[in-house]
Amino acid sequence: MKALxxxxxxxxxxxxxxxxxxxxxxxxxxxxxxxxxxNPTVHISNGGSAHCVSGTVKVNATTDKNLKFAYNLPSNxxxxxxxxxxLWSSGGDGYLKxxxxxxxxxxxxxxxxxxxxxxxxxxxxxxxxxxxTHGIGVDRHYWDFASGYSYVDTAAAAGYAxxxxxxxxxxxxxxxxxxxxxxxxxxxxxxxxxASKLRQGTLGDRAFSTVVGVGHSFGSILTQGVTAAxxxxxxxxxLTGFALDSNGLPGFGLGLNAAIASETQPYRxxxxxxxxxxxxxxxxxxxxxFYDPGFDPEILSLADATKGSFTLGELFxxxxxxxxxxxxxxxxxxxxxxxxxxxxxxxxxxxTNILAGLVPALYPxxxxxxxxxxxxxxxxxxxxxxxxxxxxxxxIQDFLKKHNV
Length: 405
Ligand SMILES: *[C@@H]1O[C@H](CO)[C@@H](O)[C@H](O)[C@H]1NC(C)=O
Ligand SMILES: *[C@@H]1O[C@H](CO)[C@@H](O)[C@H](O)[C@H]1NC(C)=O
Ligand SMILES: *[C@@H]1O[C@H](CO)[C@@H](O)[C@H](O)[C@H]1NC(C)=O
Ligand SMILES: *[C@@H]1O[C@H](CO)[C@@H](O)[C@H](O)[C@H]1NC(C)=O
Ligand SMILES: *[C@@H]1O[C@H](CO)[C@@H](O)[C@H](O)[C@H]1NC(C)=O
Hints:
Blueprint (H helix, E strand, L loop, with lengths): L1 H13 L1 E2 L20 E7 L5 E20 L7 H12 L4 H7 E20 L8 E6 L10 E3 L2 E2 H7 L3 E5 L18 H17 L9 E7 L1 H12 L6 E5 L8 H7 L3 E2 H4 L1 H4 L6 E3 L3 H8 L7 H9 L4 E2 H5 L15 E6 L3 H4 L13 H5 L8 E6 L12 H14 L3
Parallel strand pairs: 5-8, 5-9, 9-10, 10-14, 14-15
Antiparallel strand pairs: 1-2, 2-3, 3-4, 4-8, 6-7, 11-12, 12-13
Helix pairs in contact: 2-7, 5-6, 7-10
InterPro entries: AB_hydrolase_1, AB_hydrolase_fold
Protein name: AB hydrolase-1 domain-containing protein
Organism: Aspergillus kawachii
């Protein structure tokens, strides 16, 4: 439990509430003075390369594209389990079609829990930010998980600001209806709004001229969806843990062993509706997200102890917002663990590089010179939580620099 203990001690030592400006943290360090984040606390990234402020941002969002389902929320685990068996057996397409009855408009003002990080040191004048969207089963700490497992640190060392947030329904972000509201179309709008605020300077401490979207898994799906629906919002897209081979999705979906969050970890999720789920056990977490022997067992324990919730509405609209676009023409990097289960069926190199198929299919106007793939060796779906993650982190910063974003 070394990783878990040090993460908890680190959090206690480094987090302090900001009562008033100026923002000075532990040991007189300098922290960004941000606008747009309520109830800010300051802290240092796990590797110390970034100074961060966490808080909540209000996001107004509306969509006409959420789906409407002829489905009643489950009242017990037995119903949840049967729903997932139906959803994932034979791909689930028939089951999902039988439930779907058109679209619905959803609109609201949502609290989004987020962290804004700048490279350590007063001198950072960077106007480049990466907006990081996590996948299902984790929360935003996926991007700054532990010392040696921090995408935020690598990006900061390369000069980038980062903005990482808990998707709707996750952590302290608003807990909305898990069937009708917390779905991919609305979450796409929230990502788009956050990215626009960073560009305008209404979130953070400067207006960014470059906003790069970086996602993992469902977060990559939302990032891709934004490039298709709002091609001017992002300057580049980095899609990790996502590709177009869905043969492994049913195994992943069932392997998750999804369990009612409030019953599985009542000390974290009490009061949540049965439409909020988590990976059942650390065995389920390993099946879905890890590749042995590519990870430290303490990291798996920490991932299970801190697992993030996901909703039935998200599972029902998992890939719904993926769309081809000829309008987005920025650079696109596609990165995954070689042994990714959901999107490579356990081998991204078989029969050939599966990642290479994504850009021609979804971005027909993005030339080959503007795209690259990286397959991390001995890595499962939760790329950032494996030993080989740093190679992928470096590849991404090099890719962005090469393309001047
Ligand atoms: C923080 O930013 C606000 C708004 O831009 C400004 O009024 C305030 O003086 C700043 N505080 C410090 C310590 O720079
Ligand atoms: C969000 O909507 C509320 C009303 O629903 C409004 O009071 C508020 O000004 C809006 N905020 C933004 C940032 O648009
Ligand atoms: C689950 O809930 C349904 C509907 O309320 C009920 O009919 C069923 O008996 C319950 N199943 C179990 C295993 O409790
Ligand atoms: C995909 O793009 C097409 C063309 O722009 C659009 O009509 C369609 O609504 C989009 N699909 C989704 C799910 O947003
Ligand atoms: C993945 O597929 C490649 C190409 O078929 C093969 O060489 C490699 O051994 C496979 N890796 C695993 C872990 O099965």
